[in-house]
C-alpha cells in the first residue's frame, strides 16, 4: 500500500507580527475542509496552539524530555479545535542553550514515534519564529522538512528585514534540497501605502503575496476568548479571508527561490519609502510611479 503524501508547511515571521494568530487560523480553516491537521509550535514562548485549545497551554516536548527519559506520543500531542493535533516544541530555560534546539529535538522525536505515519495526517504546519534564522530555526528549511515556506510580514521595516533574512536562508539551502518559498502573507494591511510597500518588496525579491490579511477587531475578540476567528466568528469577513488563505496554501504546489536584497539594497529601499511617506504626510502627492 502506498504511503499517503503529507503536505508540510512552515510559516515564519517576526515575533509579534501575528504569525501564530495567522497560523492557527489557517490550521483551523484547513480542519474545517475535513483534513487531518497537526500544528507544531516552534517558538520558545510555546503559545502557538493556545487559541486552538480554548486558551490553554500544553506541556512542551523539551520540558517533557527534561522530566522523563522515554516519552509516549500522548504526552506531547494534544487535541485541539475540530480534531487538530497540537504540539509545542518549547525552548530552553532562559539564558541556557539555543532557542532553536526545540525544533531539532521535536522533529527527531516525532519521527522516532512514527507520529506522522500513525495519525494518518493530511497536513503538518510548523509555526516558526523568524526573527533570527539560526541553525535550529532553519531546520524546516535546511532539512527540507517543509514542502513550502510562507512568511507573515507587515509593512513594518523590522518585519520586512526578518522576511528578507529568511529569504537569504532559503536561498542558501536551495541547492541542497532545502524548502522553497511559497510567498508572503501580508498581515495588518489596512492602508494603501502598507499594501504598496509590501507589493514593492515582493517585486524586488521576485516572490508574491499569497493573501492580504486586514487588521480586525474580530481577531482580538476571538483571542480574548482563547479561540481562533474560525472558531469564534466563523461567518465573519475575517474568517472568510483566513479560509481563502488556507485553501490557497493547501492548493499551492510551486514554490521558488526568492532573490533577497543585500543589506545595502535593503536600506536604500527603506530610505526611498521613508522619503515617500514623509512626502505623503507633508501633503506632497506622490505615487509608486514617482521613481520609487
Protein described:
It contains 11 helices and 8 strands. With 292 residues, it is of the alpha/beta class. Helix 1 crosses helix 10 (237-251). The radius of gyration is 19 Å and the shape is globular.
Backbone shape = globular
- How large is the radius of gyration? 19 Å
Helix content: 40-55%
Work out the number of β strands.
8
Number of helices: 11
Low-confidence stretches: none
Structural class label: alpha/beta
Which band does the percent of strand residues land in? 15-25%
How would you state the average pLDDT, rounded?
90
The termini sit apart by 56 Å
Largest sheet: 8 strands, mixed
Offer a concise description of the structure:
The protein is of the alpha/beta class and 292 residues long. The protein contains eleven helices and eight strands. It is globular.
Q: Which properties best describe this structure?
A:
292 residues, alpha/beta, 15% strand
SSE arrangement:
Layout: E1 7-13, H1 19-32, E2 37-42, H2 61-67, E3 78-79, E4 85-88, H3 101-112, H4 115-118, E5 123-129, H5 139-142, E6 148-153, H6 157-173, E7 180-187, H7 192-204, E8 209-213, H8 217-224, H9 229-232, H10 237-251, H11 263-281
Parallel strand pairs: 1-5, 1-6, 2-4, 2-5, 6-7, 7-8
Antiparallel strand pairs: 3-4
Amino acid at each position: 500500500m502506498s504511503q499517503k503524501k503529507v503536505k508540510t508547511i512552515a510559516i515564519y515571521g517576526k515575533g509579534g507580527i501575528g504569525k501564530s494568530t495567522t497560523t492557527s487560523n489557517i490550521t483551523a480553516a484547513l480542519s474545517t475542509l475535513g483534513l487531518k491537521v497537526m500544528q507544531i509550535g516552534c517558538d520558545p514562548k510555546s503559545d502557538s496552539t493556545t487559541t486552538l485549545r480554548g486558551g490553554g497551554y500544553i506541556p512542551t516536548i523539551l520540558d517533557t524530555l527534561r522530566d522523563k527519559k522515554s516519552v509516549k506520543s500522548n504526552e506531547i500531542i494534544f487535541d485541539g479545535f475540530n480534531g487538530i493535533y497540537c504540539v509545542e516544541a518549547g525552548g530552553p530555560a532562559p539564558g541556557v542553550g539555543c532557542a532553536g534546539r526545540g525544533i531539532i529535538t521535536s522533529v527527531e522525536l516525532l519521527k522516532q514515534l512514527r507520529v506522522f505515519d500513525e495519525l494518518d495526517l493530511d497536513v503538518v504546519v510548523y509555526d516558526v519564529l523568524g526573527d533570527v534564522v539560526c541553525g535550529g530555526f532553519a531546520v524546516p528549511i535546511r532539512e527540507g522538512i517543509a514542502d513550502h515556506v510562507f512568511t507573515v510580514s507587515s509593512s513594518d521595516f523590522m518585519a520586512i528585514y526578518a522576511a528578507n533574512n529568511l529569504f537569504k536562508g532559503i536561498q542558501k539551502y536551495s541547492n541542497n534540497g532545502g524548502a522553497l518559498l511559497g510567498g508572503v502573507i501580508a498581515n495588518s494591511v489596512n492602508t494603501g501605502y502598507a499594501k504598496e510597500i509590501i507589493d514593492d518588496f515582493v517585486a524586488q525579491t521576485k516572490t508574491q503575496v499569497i493573501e492580504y490579511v486586514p487588521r480586525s477587531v474580530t481577531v482580538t475578540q476571538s483571542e480574548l476568548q482563547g479561540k481562533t476567528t474560525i472558531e469564534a466568528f466563523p461567518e465573519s469577513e475575517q474568517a472568510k479571508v483566513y479560509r481563502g488563505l488556507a485553501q490557497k496554501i493547501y492548493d499551492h504546489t510551486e514554490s521558488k527561490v526568492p532573490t533577497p536584497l543585500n543589506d545595502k539594497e535593503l536600506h536604500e529601499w527603506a530610505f526611498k519609502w521613508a522619503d515617500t511617506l514623509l512626502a505623503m504626510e507633508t501633503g506632497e502627492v506622490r505615487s509608486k510611479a514617482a521613481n520609487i
